[in-house]
TrEMBL record:
PANTHER family: AMINOGLYCOSIDE PHOSPHOTRANSFERASE DOMAIN-CONTAINING PROTEIN, AMINOGLYCOSIDE PHOSPHOTRANSFERASE-RELATED-RELATED. InterPro entries: AGP_Transferase (IPR051678), Aminoglycoside_PTrfase (IPR002575), Kinase-like_dom_sf (IPR011009). Gene3D superfamilies: 3.90.1200.10. Residues 63-295 form the Aminoglycoside phosphotransferase domain. This is Aminoglycoside phosphotransferase domain-containing protein. It comes from the Eukaryota. SUPFAM superfamilies: Protein kinase-like (PK-like). Coiled coil: none annotated.
Length: 393
């Protein structure tokens, strides 16, 4: 599997300037590339002279005394339309319903019918630096403050309950409503073309939604993974398990406790490369990269374990993440917010087994067609089967 960065578009400054003319916005004072860890967007800083910015963007604060800066994020072809719409809808809802520091959306296009030939979002530039950039020089008291603020962020996001599992989109009146779900583990367009027959698409290999409940969401995943197993030669030795997967779907409705959960909006990738702060005060000034956020069952709020990772690829990074998670848990308990932790745990052995089964099934379907991690597949299948046994399958 290549990196998503391999498919990011190279865009010239002239093309970016043509976009601003197309949008009937004033010409930028300057256009520069922003070096970031972003994998799904090419990112540019767009600067405007003060007198131009005051007229065109009167509600935006200046990044410095000389200019107003915007961020242009140009999407690759990974997940056409749904990723851009989901991100803009999530950011819009957060602006309207929370106090979280989320950038204002100035313009966006979820089509390729623009001078860039790519989807894009044009956003307010938030002040500060990412916590990952300064992590190694953060004083302990500022790190404690950041952890305390992360409790506030999680509390606000978990405060609003939704109905079912979904992504977000806009209705005809511009209201934010449930839409197709989106996951970073989806089969994305470049890999669909590379590894699958021409008959397949992003839509045929991934779930969609919205889903009324947790078990409907799980059942939909089983069905797309069964489709993949039937189709791809590398998964041929998994076909003997297809009848058991049918039974898995059929028994989900027999256990009402499997749907005993709240549903709330989760970022799903809240690591410190996505958190901005003021270096001198430790005040969190921005939360970035909402493209894979969605409405999830509580146990799925941190699906890949990225929460509080310091953004570093070092030997001790995972141990440090776990240390910070302990500090976060202690902070929640001290503030009387232990429920923020408790409700994200499976409510029963059965619910945990349901999720573990789908996790390992997904892992097999994800790596086998790519020819990866073959040595791990037998143990993953064994775990899948052990979880199915817990469910009586």
């Amino acid at each position: 599997m290549g990196s998503p960065k391999d498919h990011l578009p190279p865009i010239s400054e002239d093309t970016i300037r043509a976009l601003f003319a197309f949008l009937d916005l004033p010409p930028p004072q300057s256009v520069s590339t922003l070096s970031t860890t972003a994998e799904y967007h090419s990112i540019y800083v767009i600067s405007f002279a003060p007198e131009v910015a005051d007229a065109a963007f009167p509600t935006l604060s200046r990044s410095n005394k000389d200019c107003v800066e915007l961020i242009l994020r140009i999407s690759g072809p990974h997940l056409p339309r749904i990723k851009t719409i989901n991100e803009v809808a999530a950011m819009t809802w957060l602006q309207q319903n929370t106090r979280l520091p989320v950038a204002k959306v100035i313009r966006y296009d979820a089509s390729t019918n623009n001078p860039l030939g790519h989807e894009f979002t044009l956003l307010q530039r938030l002040p500060g630096v990412t916590v990952s950039e300064i992590y190694d020089r953060l004083p302990p008291q500022l790190l404690d403050s950041i952890i305390n603020q992360m409790v506030d962020i999680v509390q606000q996001m978990h405060a609003v309950s939704w109905d079912g599992v979904s992504g977000l989109q806009f209705d005809h009146d511009g209201n934010v409503v449930p839409g197709p779900i989106i996951e970073e583990t989806f089969w994305q367009q470049p890999d669909v073309v590379k590894y699958w027959p021409e008959s397949e698409s992003v839509q045929s290999l991934n779930i969609s939604g919205p889903y009324n409940c947790y078990t409907d969401y799980i059942a939909a995943m089983v069905r797309v993974y069964q489709h993949a197993i039937r189709l791809h030669p590398s998964l041929a030795d998994m076909r003997d398990i297809l009848p058991r997967l049918d039974l898995f779907v059929n028994i989900l409705s027999e256990f009402p406790e499997l749907n005993k959960t709240r549903y709330f909006l989760a970022h799903k990738d809240l690591h410190f490369a996505n958190i901005m702060c003021d270096e001198s005060s430790g005040l969190i000034t921005g939360i970035l990269d909402w493209e894979f956020s969605s409405i999830v069952p509580a146990p799925r709020w941190n699906p890949v374990g990225a929460f509080l990772w310091n953004g570093q690829y070092s030997e001790g990074a995972m141990a440090e993440r776990d240390r910070l998670k302990t500090l976060f848990t202690e902070c929640c308990a001290a503030r009387g917010l232990k429920s923020l932790i408790d409700e994200t745990k499976p409510n029963s052995v059965m619910q945990g087994a349901m999720q573990e089964a789908i996790n390992y099934l997904r892992a097999i379907v994800e790596v086998r067609p790519r020819g990866q991690k073959e040595e791990r597949v037998p143990s993953w299948r064994s775990t899948l089967e052990s979880q199915l046994k817990i469910l009586g399958v």
